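Supplementary Methods, section 5.1.

A reviewer requested that the exact input to the structure prediction be made available. We therefore reproduce it here, unchanged from the version used in the analyses.
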Amino acid sequence: MSALLEVEDLEVVYGRPGSPGAVKAVDGVSFRVERGRTLGLVGESGCGKSTTGYALLQLVRPTAGRVVFNGTDLCGLERSALRRMRRKLQIIFQDAHASLNPRMPIGALVGEALDIHGLHPGGARAPRIRQLLDMVGLAGHLVERYPHELSGGQAQRVAICRALAVEPELIVCDEPVSALDVSIQAQIVNLLQDLQQRLGLAYIFISHDLSVVRHVSDDIAVMYLGRIVEFAGKRGIYEAPAHPYSRALMSAVPVPDPELEAKRQRVILTGDLPDPAHPPSGCRFRTRCPVAIDECAAVDPVQYPLEPGHWAKCIRLAKGA
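The structure derived from this sequence is encoded token-by-token as follows.
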């Protein structure tokens, strides 16, 4: 069965490719997303997670590669055809208040999405708006409110409502809960999972919060400096991370057991993320890797299969070290 979304060798370069100072923000990224499943995309700030999400929706045009959605390569579409396809691919941004027009009431914000795609015209428009608000747990009387009158959690529910209005099949969730209080985060995450079960949605969940990603994801891709360094199902990443970077990330996830937490060995990374305009030779993680060897500077690691659906890019794995 074909995947809902297939990404092949995706590249995004800021600046003229090959020129001094050009930044390859996304470098050869490939993955698949099945219908009704969630792919978690994790990594430090600046690793290319959000740029990958924007490139999937063509909000940032890829420099190279393919983004195949339902059998159609989005990278080759003209603006009019892409606009029709975008009905099936939506995005929820991190800062809901910044993504909502402050001059429009909530009802108009949700209705705008319906109007653009010609959905539920005439007398069906108002009932559909109220139905959508109800789906995300918002009272119907909020249709007359403006974004500045809403709490952060309410504003994020409106953003989710706008995405749902056009009946998408896949939603890119770009840090959708990181700006919210912890209690509200849980409510939004539970809402997203409930909507996924009810509507059969697929998600790409971009976050640096590994606890949230573990809760929502089926598969997880770990990104570092524009590349995916490890890909696996949720259990594979959290219980048996293979790449040194993945192990460092997972060691930072709190364990809700004081005795286990006290015994756990943390992996502390030294140094800062390298300049993406001048990435290190060989393995990009080698400058911060606690187990790097001389060969890491010369060899650009390829995918090393660990078990079905789980691979990592590290030459030490190939060496059995």
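The chain has a mean pLDDT of 91. These observations are discussed further in the main text.
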